[in-house]
Design a protein that fits this description.
Blueprint lengths: L1 E7 L3 H17 L5 E4 L4 H7 L5 H9 L2 E6 L14 H11 L4 E7 L12 H4 L3 E7 L11 E4 L5 E4 L6 H17 L3 E6 L5 H14 L6 E6 H10 L6 E4 L1 H14 L7 E5 L5 E5 L16 H13 L4 H16 L2 E2 L9 E2 L2 H11 L1
Parallel strand pairs: 1-2, 1-3, 3-12, 5-10, 8-9, 8-10, 13-14
Antiparallel strand pairs: 4-5, 4-11, 6-7, 11-12
Helix pairs in contact: 1-10, 1-12, 6-7, 8-9, 10-11, 11-12
Bound molecules: 3-isopropylmalic acid and magnesium ion.
Length: 354
């Protein structure tokens, strides 16, 4: 298993170090892994003047899977857009054609109190957001900022989807729904946007190949509301890039903390990039307080989706559960009566539980 490790910025290197500990513990048990490190984001800019250095992209292309920490930092905010850390992430997604972004939101029963929602609303929550990742407003052309005829600055982006782009991610959504609760809710804004009208048509066409999956449609504003009103009505949510970006942050808070959720970004051949949903959190970087569980759970997703090693993925997920059951909590999920630990100690606890 050739894995490219891209720690990135902020808390990225700290949380990645814990996931690597977990992988190394498994390799001591006979899992054959080959880890190679490269810089991305602000770290890429610092090392090579580019948030996605050519060497990093080459390493990622050659790897079977990529484990990424997070990118971004205040010191890069004033750089021209192409040099900003986020561009490294967007470009690697596009270059590797990682169009299907899987973002599961599951609540550990012990963390029900850490959620800002009432325990009865979130307990038992288990949903999967399938977000399209290489199209939409993020990549649509034309885009830019210009001075218009009235001498005023104006800015524009293009929301754009082709039917093949919608179809391929819809297939992933339906296939995942088949392995779960067989319900798929497609989220768009078809009452206003042509992009969404096409999205809905293609999803309906694709659904004919999955007659066992119960398909529903929801406008994104309603979906945002339903996610906090009654999140357990959802099994799989299938949505585009920008709506998925927003709804997945919202869904993460149902589980207590954005620090708990991993993600997978897959191409047509199950090659994938795995990363926590959270960002680089520069305000807490280097203080050993970040939650490494999202990154460790991302490594579990990597074993499941790219390498097909479900039993090992189960083992990692179980070890995370054990650490939580033992009452260990990083600051983001701490509640009175539990034991507060740092990032490295949480990683050690997961390794011990393995
Ligand atoms: C995410 C992030 C990225 C996105 C940013 C960092 C470019 O918010 O992975 O959800 O908008 O996709
Ligand atoms: Mg986001």
């Amino acid at each position: 298993m050739k894995i490219a490790i891209l720690p990135g910025d902020g808390i990225g290197p700290e949380v990645i170090a814990q996931a690597v500990k977990v992988l190394q513990a498994l390799s001591a048990d006979g899992l054959e892994i080959d880890l190679d490190y490269a810089a991305i984001g602000g770290a890429g800019y610092d090392a090579a003047g580019d948030p996605l250095p050519a060497a990093t992209l080459a390493l990622a292309r050659n790897a079977d899977a990529i484990l990424l920490g997070a990118v971004g930092g205040y010191q890069y905010d004033a750089l021209p857009r192409p040099m900003r850390p986020e561009q490294g992430l967007l470009r690697i997604r596009k270059e590797l054609n990682l169009f299907a972004n899987l973002r599961p939101a599951q609540l550990y029963p012990e963390l029900a109190d850490a959620s800002t929602l009432k325990p009865e609303v979130v307990s038992g929550l288990d949903l999967m957001i399938v977000r399209e990742l290489t199209g939409d407003l993020y990549f649509g052309q034309p885009r830019g900022i210009q001075v218009n005829a009235a001498g005023e600055r104006e800015a524009y982006n293009t929301m754009r989807y082709s039917e093949s782009e919608v179809r391929r991610v819809a297939h992933i959504g339906f296939q995942i729904a088949m392995k779960r609760g067989r319900k798929l809710c497609s989220v768009e804004k078809a009452n206003v946007l042509e992009t969404s009208e096409l999205w809905r048509e293609v999803v309906v066409e694709t659904a004919r190949q999955y007659p066992e999956v119960e398909l529903s449609h929801m406008y994104v504003d309603n979906a945002a509301m339903q996610l906090v009103r009654n999140p357990k009505q959802f099994d799989v949510i299938l949505t585009g890039n920008i709506f998925g970006d927003i709804l997945s942050d919202e869904a993460s808070m149902l589980t207590g903390s954005i620090g708990m959720l991993g993600s997978a970004s897959l191409d047509e051949n199950r090659k994938g990039m795995y990363e926590p949903i959270h960002g680089s959190a520069p305000d807490i970087a280097g203080r050993d307080v970040a939650n490494p569980l999202a990154t460790i759970l991302s490594a579990a997703m990597m074993l499941r989706y790219t390498f097909g090693r479900d039993a090992i993925a189960d083992r990692i997920e179980h070890a995370v559960k054990t650490a939580i059951t033992q009452g260990l909590r990083t600051a983001d999920i701490y509640t009175p009566g539990t034991t507060r630990v740092g990032c490295a100690a949480m990683g050690d606890a997961v390794v011990a539980a393995l």
